[in-house]
Amino acid sequence: MLQMQSQTETALERFDWLSVTFLLGGVLLCYYLLPLLSLVFSQPPGAVLERVTGPEVVSAATTSLTTSATSAAIATLFGLPLSYWIARADGKVKTGVTAVVILPLVLPPVVSGMVLLTVVGPNTFLGELASANGVRLTRSAAGIVLAQTFVSSPFVVITAKAAFESVDRSLEYASQSLGKSRLTTFRRVTLPLAWPGILAGITLAFARAIGEFGATIMLAYYPRTMPVQIWVSFTTLGLENAFPVAIILVGIAVATLVIVNVLGTNPLG
Predict the structure, then answer these.
(1) How many domains does the chain have?
(2) Overall pTM surpassing 0.85 (yes/no)
């Protein structure tokens, strides 16, 4: 009995578990890659190019690029001060604020849109106030920016926070000991050292904004962004007509990964 148990343990020790884990991981990797390759090669390049240059696709791409760039800029303007404060704060307040920042990341996008409608919808105080001054916060580019900023800005805050926390505090103390103000220290020491991580967060926020669908369609069905145009093309004309815009979004996603890797920054680290 003991001999059989010893043989079993020896066999288990000799079994190449690393190959098994690689095989299982390879199955999941194929599950990621095969749909993307199928999308890219499912139609002739000429047919895709012809549809990509169509007026509806160009309009959706233009809307998405401009609103996403605006959303990323807003997220950076307000997110960097918040991320720096969180990185230098301590205690339960820091934990609570961080949880609030992460909340839009875990909310279903449609729920995010519903939440925003209770604040900026046409029958709300802010919605009526803006409308009275000639600004529409829904069914407009402003509505798209509001939706995109809500769901994408946490990427700037969380990634920049990690970048600021990675900066050696002794360098900041040394700068201040030489008579430099806190603002000068931030501008000349902290910001340059944290900049690759910050830029990675801005890039991720832009990519998240340009791919946003749920919150955007709740606040602004028009003008159409690329994800909304994909949905409209799919539901009205079929899957083939949704391919061109989808390929553009895949290209943007790949470009985002390339930029983040070039920066050498792990957005989750």
Answers:
(1) 1
(2) no
